[in-house]
Amino acid sequence: MIDFNRPHLTGKEMHYMYQAVYQKKLSGNGEFTKRCQQFFQDRYGFRKCLLTTSGTDALEMCAMLCNLQPGDEVIVPSYTFVSTALAFLREGAKVVFADSMQRNPNLDAEKIESRITPRTRVIVPVHYAGVACDMDAIMDVANRHNLLVVEDAAQAIDNYYVSPKSGEKKALGGIGHLAAFSFHETKNVTAGGEGGLLVVNDERFLRRAEILWEKGTNRAEFFRGAVNKYGWVDMGSSFLPAEINAAFLWAQLENLDEIQNKRKALWNRYYDNLSQIQNVSFSLPDLPDYATNNAHMFYLTFPTLDERTAFIQFLKEHDILCVFHYLSLHSSPFYLDKHDGRVLPESDRYTDTLVRLPMYYELTFDDIDRICDTIRMFYANR
Ligand SMILES: *Cc1c(COP(=O)(O)O)cnc(C)c1O
Fold first, then answer.
1. Nearest to residue 149, comparing CAs of 187, 112, 188?
2. Half-sphere exposure of 56 toward its Cβ, with a 13 Å CA cutoff?
3. Which tens digits make up the pLDDT trace of 192-204?
4. 256-381 is classed in which CATH architecture?
5. Is the pTM higher than 0.85?
6. Does residue 184 line the site of ligand 1, with CB under 6 A?
7. What spacing in Å lies between the alpha carbon of 166 and ligand 1's midpoint?
8. CATH architecture of 13-254
9. How many angstroms is it from 234 CA to the middle of ligand 1?
10. Mean pLDDT of 252-273
11. Atom of ligand 1 nearest to the CA of 196
């Protein structure tokens, strides 16, 4: 059986977790947390990073930092994970769903402008499959309407947007005012199952981010010696993970290049192999000129739901697990009666026709070749 996903272990996880335990500093914001945060700041030039217990928590911090008022609107793609929308809904905002592009599931920048009203405050681009949204276009709309941009970079570690205008290469998560990464076990690197990272790129949010992170207290300023006692100064929650999670994550970050190189080699193997099969009905993943590849996911899209169902079933019969992905949020049981009734055809098309192939570090070239041969058989039998 070829699994759909398996979390990767570099081998150093237990060592660092052991170290964290024996340092007798088990709660959050210790040495390993600082090391992980510094890693992202140094490697990608992010202004300030704070580890969180999940990507969802990082998104919730972003939503809190946006300081939304009742009736404020936030533009979110419908084809995304629940947390992207939920984080803002919890803050009392109205979520306005926007459609994906025809070429890939990312937010269609050209359709955003028509969704903007005097109450719009935030745009939330999701870098689906880790592939960059059209960030020049999105930042341009945001700047013209004075909106905040929160990148849902949950899948986008170690990936870039290359500006067609300036040629500048910018790390995803470092372009919007705020961003969130996830270290869930299904992502390229994990913090031991659950984990996330808040990125603060805009100076205005630096102080409040630390306060929200530490249960609404100015504890961080106290430990820096900036104030002589700390207390309750704002809203907040317990967003910081325990040190053993940060220790686990550190073992992965230390090996990030190796993890990424392996994943990219597997991804390219799929791409090269599948592009040679004749007369197929699927489309290969789209990588725009402005996007680099972090090999988070390898997905195919089919012309119809029936064909996708037959495909998943055929591979399952050959011991290969493939899965579909999101269901449009605008027509979910929870949001349907809150949605304004607009049809979002691309989001619904990806809901029905997108399938993800196995993609994880432990896969071998042989596994990939077997998967591709099975896909050949699927077409030979039709
Ligand atoms: C994984 C994911 C999240 C949530 O991250 P968790 O760490 O599981 O809370 C949010 N948005 C997207 C696009 C994701 O892929």
1. 112
2. 10
3. 999 999 999 999 9
4. Alpha-Beta Complex (3.90)
5. yes
6. yes
7. 30
8. 3-Layer(aba) Sandwich (3.40)
9. 26
10. 98
11. 7
